[in-house]
Amino acid sequence: MAKERKIFVCQACGSITNKWVGQCEACQEWNSIVEEQDNSHPTGLGKSTSSRNKGQIIALDDLRGEDTPPPRMISTINEFDRACGGGLVSGSAILIGGDPGIGKSTILLQAVAKLAANNIKTVYISGEESISQVRMRAKRLDLDKSPVKLGAETNLRDILATLDKETGLQVVVIDSIQTMYADTVDSAPGTVTQVRTCAQELIRYAKRKNVCIFLVGHVTKDGQIAGPRVLEHMVDTVLYFEGDRGHQFRILRAVKNRFGGTDEIGVFEMSDLGLQEVSNPSALFIGNRSGDVSGSAIFAGMEGSRPMLVEIQALVAPSSLGQPRRAVVGWDNGRLAMIIAVLDARCGLGLGAYDIYLNVAGGLRITEPAADMAVAAALISSLSNRPIPEETILFGEISLSGEIRPVSQTEARLKESVKLGFIQAYMPSKSKHGHKISAQGKKMHFIELDQISKLVDLVAGDAL
Ligand code: TYD
Ligand code: MG
After folding, report:
1. Ligand 1 within 6 A of CB of 97
2. Which end of the chain is more exposed for a tag (fewer CB within 10 A), N or C?
3. Looking at residue 437, what DSSP letter applies?
């Protein structure tokens, strides 16, 4: 029998070394190397294929050909179906990641309950909560009459045996993959090897039995699904459940989807009756804004194919510190530094001497460069103490030279804005749009800008 080999695996990035080191050479993380057993041989838990010494000839197909699109199972929670690319596909594996307590178990319980109510056979396996805890939650959500089958187990072998025995199963939830334990592997649950092995076996089961499987994954402090990024490659769809725990809004975001568009989002609101759908998020994110305050700008953003208006708030205050404070919530720190540098270098605003706070209202996180102009406008507005006219939205990317660049999907942004009662847009010149954008008798008025200095003049007037 071959001697068992020990390997050392980085728990942050999954890279393997053959001796223990204090810092991972691949991802530079400290103290992340853990000794594990070499698991490069098949685990033998699922149905193994017969060993063949000689390869068999596989049939090759033409790229051209007719295939019917895969049928979708609809949960009737529209925001959930949308994030999943328009419903669940049989035989697909979906990883759903998010901070602890953000609502992963809640949304999945709600989804399977709805699916089960539509005569789709579902099983929910919890490795974190007992049956009675799950039942209690279901009762609170008023879902306790739904024919969902529950299991509380962490042993992978038992779970696979149970699932294999069930007939006609269509959707399975594993909550969470970090608690699952394969007894063929010598490492502790939650380690890279365990997580990878369990996920592999469960995905193999899903493909073999044509079952849609959800794997819940915890997220580490820096926002990665804990353990290996390899999980993301193994599954068909990766969803992140995001949100600020101080706010009630939650966003289910597709970051990878082999069966649908990525960057699709579903918006929910956490209430005492579980997660409620929010079908008009823009109205919600700019909902309780008071008009005439300086430092507030409305950004007409896009989340995937969906326009979404958000309020960006800035506070610029003289600093008493040697190194002024910069605090950002919901946007990228580096990007803010760039906007400040451009405003200083191209327009001489002297923001270097001020403390700057930037906040995206509602707990939303924006990654689009198109928000540059709204951020710059909020900063200028706060510095000059001049409010941006009410009923105005902004979008546009700012280059290092101070130029304002056009962004994608101008038309969709403008249409959403006018629908919500905004009648003026500060936007990049040369933007492509239909020029006649109106709703409820109001016509949109465009102010096209090509240089950031023009934005400073427009917002601050003679105040700077
Ligand atoms: P949960 O789904 O257990 O989070 P995760 O599985 O991502 O760790 O969410 C639990 C949180 O949601 C908890 O802080 C309580 C809150 N919650 C509500 O506010 N209302 C509800 O109806 C439910 C079920 C949970
Ligand atoms: Mg949970």
Report:
1. no
2. N
3. -
